[in-house]
């Protein structure tokens, strides 16, 4: 009976090591995978355009005394969050893009999330009021 428990404990320990190795591999891929500059540039340009539109939308909301559709505080906070997230990612990308180097995929994914988030707000369809 002792041998069965010992064998079971060893099997569980080895299974835990395999899971730990998988986690380490996923972490390594996530922190070293890159996206080529020619793929990143269009996403960065899209963010820049949406960020400018977000600024125009904010001015529109102020001009309308925050009464226009989409000018509620929750929507403005979401827009602000996406703009800040995208701006941080864009700043991190700048050096790599200037030298035509690949960008770390996690930073690229943050920018894509910001672009998609902004598209899902009134900023994505704002035409200047």
Architecture blueprint of SSEs:
Elements lengths: L1 H31 L1 E2 L1 H27 L9 H26 L4 E2 H15 L10
Antiparallel strand pairs: 1-2
Report on the architecture of this protein.
Helix 2 (37-63) packs antiparallel against helix 3, helix 2 runs parallel beside helix 4 and helix 3 packs antiparallel against helix 4 (105-119). The chain starts with a helix and ends in a 10-residue tail after the last helix. The chain has a two-stranded antiparallel ribbon. The model has no long low-confidence stretch (mean pLDDT 83). It is flat and about 70 Å long. It folds into 2 domains: 1-32; 33-125, no CATH class. It is mostly helical. It is built from 4 helices and 2 strands; from the N terminus they run αβααβα.
Mean pLDDT across residues: 83
The oligomeric state of the chains shown is single chain
* Low-confidence regions: none
Strand composition percent: under 5%
Q: What is the count of β-strands?
A: 2
Question: Quick gist of this model?
Answer:
The protein is mainly alpha-helical and 129 residues long. 77% of the residues lie in helices and 3% in strands.
């Amino acid at each position: 009976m002792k041998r069965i428990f010992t064998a079971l404990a060893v099997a569980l320990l080895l299974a835990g090591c395999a899971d730990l190795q998988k986690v380490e591999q996923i972490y390594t891929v996530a922190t070293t995978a890159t996206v080529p500059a020619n793929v990143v540039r269009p996403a960065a340009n899209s963010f820049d355009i949406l960020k400018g539109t977000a600024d125009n939308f904010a001015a529109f909301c102020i001009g309308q005394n925050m009464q226009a559709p989409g000018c509620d505080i929750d929507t403005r906070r979401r827009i602000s969050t996406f703009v800040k997230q995208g701006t941080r990612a864009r700043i991190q990308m700048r050096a790599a893009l200037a030298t035509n180097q690949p960008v770390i995929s996690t930073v690229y994914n943050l920018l894509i999330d910001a672009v998609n988030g902004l598209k899902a707000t009134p900023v994505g369809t704002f035409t200047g009021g």
